[in-house]
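Sequence in, structure out.
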Amino acid sequence: MLKNPSKPLIITRHSEGGWLAFLYYLWLFYNINPSYDKAIPIRITFGSPLLGDDGLYRAIQSRLGWYPQFLHVVSDGDLIRGTFVSSSANNSYKPFGTFIVCSSSSKACACFEDPDSVLNVLAATVESFQMLKLMDYVNLLQDIAD
């Protein structure tokens, strides 16, 4: 990627692998030469548990160009992405980036960037969905695209 910055690098993982993708992404972003601004990688997670608090949220926002590079795709029925979400106001997580929340039953998606909205939507879907399972995001996104 650094030798040919015209080709994008996309870092992606599912479930708990999203945490690893995030750590690798931060390492790569920190070590990338700023002159390669067109080679900034994009990070996409699928059903990853939440990561980070207010301090990490502010750090990501303070870095020029970092915040928009985080894309999270989650389904209302995914077991893993709801692991650390609660409806309590004491939730210490501060989501960052764009969250695409998909409904496996209605085959629809909605996008959220506001951290409080993300927490509210994730908490509401965890509480309302009883048959949580590991999601097949490839088929889910293909169904929604059709």
